[in-house]
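Could you please consider the sequence and fold following this short note?
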Amino acid sequence: MDTAQIMGLVTGILFGFLLQKGRVLRFEKQVGAMLLKDMTILKFMLSAIMVGMVGVTLLADAGVIALSHKPMNVGAILVGGALFGAGWAVMGFCPGTSVGALGEGRWHAAFGITGMLAGAALYAELYPLMKATVLSWTDFGKIGLPETLGVSPWAVIIVFIAVALGLFRWFESRGL
């Protein structure tokens, strides 16, 4: 194992630990999020996004990493988002929480994980067809919000954090 793999393993274990401690692996939290009655998962995700945005931007500014955007492909986003949402609704777990739930001993999550692996294999087999159809729908190229708006990434981060903190406050005032 090289250093990158060890860091990936440590980061994955830490993320799983935080998922468990944040109680977002609980089925009732997943259902509550889908019914918009419990915002624990959204608050957890927004917190992770804020930390990640700041951390990645600091690393990029320091020259430690180089950012490389994925292409903004409308077909891939629509089809992928629909499959992700359908899988979450059917299983009650998203990909990260299903692996965490299995780690907690909830064996029924193995069905969702098996489905994800089968879906990934199916996608790999169908990639030539997908590339000629769905993946060719309106590709905007490698764009990002700061570049599109012509502003510093830090401006986007500050606005995002302000909105997220406002949402946190609103959720707490509503008992969500």
About this structure: The two ends are 43 Å apart (CA to CA). Residues 39-69+144-176 form one domain. Helices lie at 3-21, 27-34, 40-61, 74-91, 95-103, 109-132, 145-149, 153-173. The mean pLDDT is 89.
